[in-house]
Write a structure and sequence with these properties.
The chain has a single domain, classed as Spore Coat Polysaccharide Biosynthesis Protein SpsA, Chain A, CATH 3.90.550.10. The strands form two sheets. Strands 1, 4, 5, 6, 7, 8, 9 and 10 form an eight-stranded mixed beta sheet that branches. It has a two-stranded antiparallel ribbon with strand order 2-3. It starts with a strand and ends with a helix. The relative contact order is 0.18. The protein has helices at about 30-40, 50-60, 75-85, 105-120, 140-145, 155-160, 185-195, and strands at about 1-10, 25, 25-30, 45-50, 65-70, 95-100, 125-130, 130, 135-140, 165-170. Helix 1 crosses helix 4 (about 105-120). The protein is globular and about 40 Å long. By secondary structure, it is an alpha/beta fold.
Length: about 200
């Protein structure tokens, strides 16, 4: 079984406010990520931390499970560990999504899952224009233990960087799926592009 983990615990210090709750087309950003995951997978875990009650309320209408991360202030690795720990024992692989990437689509998630089922590696990452981005799928049989030992704010990037021979590139047509939000200017750009791609909401 493939599951999804939406990382929505951080405080977004560079942004200055909790970006996973910023509105986009009438919904918080985290809702868009979680909704895409729910359309692709039968089990979706949302990791909460900073503003946990707000994030829980934002996804209350979606069939997700919440995984509170009491150590969210230590960095993204703690959220990865919380997400992995919350997965069901039968989960063979998990896709890790960022809460501030509203252009990730169910089709992209389906493509990652299809590539995993076809085999060839243990890490599956989307690539557009020569650039690799998120979300990334990890085979848990290979990486569960190592992910549970991660520390700091780098997330699983160290695993990907250290094992290029196990990474399968999954081509995507549009690099816009990689857009995330770190600054107010990023947020304004995402809102502008979203309106172009989804006129009228």
């Amino acid at each position: 079984m493939i599951a999804a983990v939406v990382l929505a615990a951080g405080a977004a210090r560079r942004m200055g406010r909790t970006k996973q709750l910023l509105p986009l087309a009438g919904r918080p950003l985290v809702w868009h990520a979680a909704a895409a995951a729910c359309r692709a997978f039968g089990d979706v875990v949302v990791v909460t931390g900073s503003q946990g009650a707000g994030v829980a309320a934002a996804v209350a209408d979606l069939p997700v499970r919440l995984a509170p991360n009491p150590d969210w202030q230590t960095g993204q690795a703690s959220s990865l560990r919380a997400g992995v720990a919350a997965l069901r024992p039968e989960t063979g692989a998990a896709v890790f999504l960022l809460a501030d990437q509203p252009f990730v689509t169910p089709a992209l998630l389906d493509a990652l899952a299809a590539a995993y089922r076809a085999g060839g590696g243990t890490i599956y990452a989307p690539v557009a224009g020569g650039r690799r981005g998120n979300p990334v799928l990890f085979d848990l049989g290979r990486w569960r233990q190592e992910m549970m030992t991660l520390e700091g704010d780098a997330g699983a990037r160290a695993i990907v960087a250290a094992h290029p021979d196990e990474v399968v590139a999954v081509p995507v047509a549009d690099a816009a799926v990689f857009l995330d939000i770190d600054t107010p200017a990023d947020y304004e750009e995402v809102k502008r592009l979203y309106e172009i791609l989804h006129p009228g909401g």
